[in-house]
Design brief:
The chain is of the alpha/beta class and 266 residues long. It is built from nine helices and nine strands. The protein is globular, with a radius of gyration of 18 Å.
């Protein structure tokens, strides 16, 4: 955001601290109260603006809570079939090598139906950036168990809680991505506090920079809240991220081939 220290809000006598980012459209949100998708959108828009690449950025979104992602970003975008965002982004980036291409995907989309497409695109070192929202549940379709659902967590498809013996444990995407040769950057961050949001922006910047430098696939995972399907208020959801999710999904940079590794947890 650009500071406008000399400006005053008309009729209020208050200084305008920052302007609205031109990459983020000003419109009514469709997300639930306390959802962190809005914070993630803001970070993506700020990074694109500050890197000066918004005019050549192309968003590929798939199915899930982020179905209408392209309504919020003032960039070119298209919708992929469920789970196929990385496959579509591969085609877009190869056809438009001058573009900065990124996917925006949830845990059910990328780590379940889209796991194969995501891992193979990453392993090939496709020069795209993937933003992965991990809220440990299927948010849009009714709160079913996701690949990232915690052991013991109750959902509409595991009423007694996820059972390690029958459903296995949560999938840790940042660690998986870091093992692939084509991945240039992999990090996991959280959006539950100001401190962590600031660290998340640094990690997101690096994920885009490795694409722009031609180093390979960039990946950043955001731990996010879903108060609606977690059946709790936003404050409790933020606390759950800190107390329950982070111990299972440790924060940090898992891979950075650029040589400028920086902690993602702040």
């Amino acid at each position: 955001m650009q500071a406008q220290e000399a400006s005053l809000c008309p009729g209020q006598g208050e200084k305008l601290v920052f302007d609205v980012n031109p990459v983020l459209n000003e419109r009514q949100t469709h997300y639930c109260p306390g959802c962190h998708h809005g914070i993630a959108h803001r970070l993506v828009s700020e990074v694109l603006h500050e890197l000066g690449v918004a005019q050549r950025a192309i968003l590929v979104a798939a199915v899930g809570c982020a179905t209408f992602t392209y309504d919020y970003f003032n960039v070119d975008g298209l919708e992929a079939p469920h789970g196929r965002a990385c496959a579509v982004a591969t085609g877009v980036r190869r056809a438009r090598p001058e573009a900065v291409v990124f996917t925006y995907q949830g845990d059910g989309d990328m780590a379940a139906i889209g796991m194969a497409e995501s891992l193979h695109a990453a392993n090939r070192g496709e020069k795209i950036t993937s933003v992965f929202i991990n809220n440990a549940v299927y948010g849009m379709t009714g709160g079913q168990m996701a690949p990232t659902t915690l052991v013991g967590q109750k959902t509409t498809t595991c009423r007694a809680g996820r059972n390690m013996a029958t459903e296995g444990g949560p999938v840790r995407m940042a660690e998986i991505m870091a093992q692939l040769d084509g991945v240039a950057y992999s990090a996991r961050c959280s959006l539950h506090s100001v401190k962590h949001v600031r660290a998340a922006k640094k990690a997101l910047t690096r994920a885009f920079e490795v694409q722009m430098q031609g180093l390979g696939f960039g990946f950043v995972e955001f731990l996010s809240g879903c108060p609606t399907n977690w059946h709790m208020d936003p404050v409790a959801a933020n606390r759950r991220i800190a107390e329950a999710m982070i111990p299972v999904f440790p924060l940090g940079v898992y891979k950075d081939t650029s040589g400028t590794e920086e902690a993602a947890h702040g």
